[in-house]
Amino acid sequence: MAARRYAAVVGWGKYVPQRVMTNDELATMVDTSDEWIRQRTGILERRIADLKEFTSTMAIRAARAALRVAALDPDRLDLIIVCTVTGDYPFPATASLVQDALGASHAGAFDLAAGCSGFIYGLSLASQMIAAGAYDNILVIGAETLSRIIDWSDRQTCVLFGDGAGAFVLQASDQPGGVISFTLGSDGSGADLLIMPGGGSRHPFNETTLANGMTKIRMNGREVFRFATRIMGRAAKEVIDRAGLDIDHVELFVPHQANLRIISTAAKFLGLPMDRVYVNLDRYGNTSAASVPIAVCEAVEEGRIKPGDHIVLVAFGAGLSWAAALIQWAVPPERRWPWWRRLLQWLRYRYARVKSFRQRVVRKLGSLWNRLLGRNGNMGNGAVRGQSGGGDTGWQT
Ligand code: COA
Q1: 88 in a domain, yes or no?
Q2: Is 286 annotated in the active site?
Q3: In the structure, which protein residues have their CB atom closer than 6 angstroms to any atom of ligand 1?
Q4: Nearest CA to ligand 1 atom 33
């Protein structure tokens, strides 16, 4: 019988933009105050991408950090999943841009859109692909540039969100642990409660959708709040039960960082004291699919997650959707890259850029050449036809 395979988290990384936007700054833009935002959400500040930063560029930085921790050559990645609702383009997938920049030449790549629950959806999917034996190394990224779809005149939503990216490297292991259980859920009857109505096939991007603000986030805050307080604790309990554990086994609860009041309600439901709950929304606000991996990275950096710990991740969001996963933390065996390996990897990233550029140039020259040949060919066809009255391919012979 084949040995059981586990999906261990062997790498983690994050990136947040430099630019900090405080509550006071927001109060100069809309009718709000630092006091209101602190009391009603727990948020003090958030990060905002600058004009040269996109979801892909932040995802790439988080991914590189995660690969460095995992000491994994991007060439060994089998799959890249970017969980986002703010990809660089409607298509192609942002994951393909990440794959190209990393030089991950053997990896498949796609985006996954499940709102703020996206990262845990991606994590669950990746863990099952590894457990099934299909793949050995999968990069899962949560990355968002929400600042580009925020209505900066709507005080109800603009105070909540921020930009950033977080990434995990999942790797096949024969050691029990990694992603132990998960649950995914959806209630599409609440689709209109948190939505960007324009820009899709129903209301394509045009002057009307633009003028009506339909390409910005719209939210019924109270209803989303009610849903979130109901679902978070329940989803967490479900993954704990499925893993055959109880709440005392959970060393750290890492919830989606949306609102401190939602998080405290979930913790109370679970009977968890707040010192076993990780919170960083005060500094970043709600970064949607990036919030859970960023929080996990910071918890590790702060020594709040140790080898063997059981951590519960829970998120909710647009859909309405929710997801939870229970992970037993595995630390990669001492695999830190020496300085020369890090330098080599840096050079390889540069080379990946050059290679990508070369591919584009070759493709452009190729199509130019074909066009030229096509024109010549047509002329040739005409000439040959004129001579022989023969078929279209006559010129080739
Ligand atoms: N500053 C000042 N006042 C504000 C405000 C702001 N930024 N936003 C809303 N208000 C006002 C409202 O207009 C309302 O005023 P009114 O009573 O005169 O009508 C009052 O504050 C209370 O509004 P309410 O919506 O009941 O506030 P709340 O306590 O529910 O907090 C949210 C609002 C949005 C913070 C809260 O509902 C929430 O966090 N919901 C979940 C949102 C979320 O997590 N979304 C992302 C999901 S992934």
Answers
A1: yes
A2: yes
A3: 32, 36-37, 40-41, 116, 155-156, 159-160, 194, 219, 221-222, 224-225, 228, 258-259, 286, 317
A4: 221
Do 354 and 272 share a structural domain? no
Q: In angstroms, what is the span from residue 41 Cα to ligand 1's centroid? A: 9
| Cα(346)–Cα(340) distance, integer angstroms | 10
Q: How many domains does the chain have?
A: 2
pTM, rounded to two decimals? 0.91
Alpha-helix residue ranges (DSSP H) falling in the chain:
23-27, 34-41, 55-70, 94-102, 118-131, 155-158, 207-211, 221-242, 260-270, 281-284, 291-301, 339-388
Answer whether residue 256 shows pLDDT above 50. yes
The mean of the pLDDT values for the chain is 92
Is residue 380 in a domain? no
pLDDT score, position 69: 92
Same domain flag for 170 and 41 = yes
Please check whether residues 215 and 176 belong to one and the same domain. yes
137 and 15 both lie in a single domain:
yes
Position of tokens 């066009």?
A: 371
Cα 70 to chain centroid distance, Å, stands at 18
- Is 116 catalytic? The answer is yes
Owning domain of residue 350: 337-374
pLDDT at 143: 98
Closest C-alpha residue for ligand 1 atom 23? 222
On whether residue 385 sits in a domain, the answer given is no
The catalytic position among 116, 158, 297, 381 is: 116
Residue 222 CA to ligand 1 centre (angstroms): 7
CATH number where 14 lies: 3.40.47.10
| pLDDT of the residue at 1 | 62
Segment 84-101 shows an average pLDDT of 97
On whether both 360 and 249 belong to a single domain, the answer is: no
How does pLDDT run across 159-197, given as a tens digit for each residue? 999 999 999 999 999 989 999 999 999 999 999 999 999
Task: Flag whether pLDDT at 377 surpasses 60.
Answer: no
Q: Is residue 259 part of a domain?
A: yes
**Whole-angstrom distance, CA of residue 211 vs CA of residue 214:** 8
